[in-house]
Amino acid sequence: MQLFITVLACVLAAANAESSVCCSYGDSRVVMAQWDAVFTASNGGKVTTGYALFSRLFELAPGAKDLFSRVNVGDMRSPQFSAQMVRVMTGLDLALNALADQPLLESLTGHMAAQHAARPGVTVDGFRMMEQSIMEIMPQLIDNFNPDAWSNCLHGVIDGISNGLS
Ligand code: HEM
């Protein structure tokens, strides 16, 4: 049944002129397995990976840094910003692990979209920069990184979390 739902989502995505990407069931299996190796790494995987992702995000979009003043972005190694990185990594983990379950994925990303919509200044462009950061950093952390599977699946996740932003 889940396979059917995923394939249906792909067909619907293909029918949408704005979206030519499709996260197939096979793509989702690859991404979930490759992500798992990063997320569960014993050497502080979440914080280390979050630091790499946010460092690249702030290179691509320096203005985005101001959005995180409440969580002590001035010291990216601080407990406050480390906690922010863990929240983001955990949100990403929930979404990526739901790739093969479209209704669950939509519920998770919809909830995160509402959390971001409540934060003035957070934009779709910022999320596109985060997508780029993830696509640049993950190959450095994952053996046999599969760029097609990742770009097919990550795009929909980022779309979902940034849904409703301007
Ligand atoms: C992979 C993409 C991302 C995920 C999974 C994610 C997830 C999260 C989560 C789970 C929270 C905590 C929400 C809460 O407790 O209310 C959060 C907070 C936040 N996110 Fe994201 N986020 C992502 C990308 C971004 C991007 C690209 C931006 C801006 C450019 C952004 C801006 C913020 C801000 C400003 C907060 C609030 C920080 C504070 O507490 O002051 N997020 N995010």
Set out the fold topology:
Elements: H1 2-15, H2 25-39, H3 45-60, H4 79-97, H5 102-117, H6 124-141, H7 147-161
Helix pairs in contact: 2-4, 2-7, 3-4, 3-6, 4-5, 5-7, 6-7
The protein binds protoporphyrin IX containing FE.
InterPro entries: Globin, Globin-like_sf, Globin/Proto, Haemoglobin_extracell, Mb-like_M
Binding site for heme b: 116
Family: Belongs to the globin family.
Identify the CATH homologous superfamily.
Globins
Q: Please give the share of residues in helix.
A: 55-70%
Largest sheet: none
Helix and strand content put the structural class at mainly alpha
- The overall strand count is 0
Bound molecules: protoporphyrin IX containing FE
Q: What is the end-to-end distance?
A: 35 Å
Amount of beta strand:
under 5%
InterPro entries: Globin (IPR000971), Globin-like_sf (IPR009050), Globin/Proto (IPR012292), Haemoglobin_extracell (IPR014610), Mb-like_M (IPR044399)
Signal peptide: 1-17
Protein name: Extracellular globin
Domain Globin: 22-166
